[in-house]
Amino acid sequence: MNRKVWGIFAVVCAVAMIAVCAAPVLAQDEPKEKPPMYSYVGNWSIPRAQWAEMEKAGAANQKILEKAMADGTIVGYGNDINLVHTPDGDTHDNWWSAMSMAGILNVLDKFYKNGSSTSPALASATKHSDNIFVSRYYNWHSGPYKGAYGRLAEYKLKADAPSHAVETLSKNLFVPLMEKLLADGTILEYEVDTEAIHTEAPGTFWVVFIASNAEGLDKFNAALQEGSKKNPLIGPAIGSMVDFTVHRDELASSTGTYK
Known about the structure:
By secondary structure, the protein is an alpha+beta fold. 38% of the residues lie in helices and 31% in strands. It has helices spanning 3-22, 51-60, 62-70, 101-114, 120-123, 165-183, 214-230, 237-241, and strands at residues 37-45, 76-82, 92-98, 127-140, 143-156, 187-197, 204-211, 248-258. It has an 8-stranded antiparallel barrel. Helix 1 packs across helix 7. The two termini are 28 Å apart.
């Protein structure tokens, strides 16, 4: 997604914020926080010569993840291959989500015990990092997907942003937009994440969705543009809360499944 489109996203955010201040949404119409969903993400920078081995390593871990899904320990899992590379960026990630911190850590413990964390593919990584996220705004279609496209947008709140900024944006912009796209099949999953374990600066949040196909990315962009047309007010609200100088996007080829 280009910078212009995400600029439109910022405009719509501003409109949403202004609307919230001027006319509070009725409680029955307002999206509600859900129970916290935790996600563990392992990020890897793998030499291109080892990409096939990385795929084999992922297949070898499938039994652990399938069992954890079947017994209710986790609610989703998958992996991504980065499609827009940077010199120091990651090439791959693998992840799983659970409705408790214990759920994600119990699966991680199984990987440590079976030795997969020291597989040749992972040992070849030139860089590695982990994140544990928590989301209270999310939804998905059940079942497996392959050849989908994962989109991630990273934002950082300014130091003087209100404490409820992410909540307000989620309830008045992200959730209504994503739910509409989820309902018509344009996207398969979405979530608004913050870190449960802070390895990034406080105030960072992520908006993530999985498009069912490449056309879904265009439909998402079109929905943002249409939203800007229907909301002609352009105000400084979002600019006063979000530091766009550190905004980053990611696009990945995604495989996974949700309960």
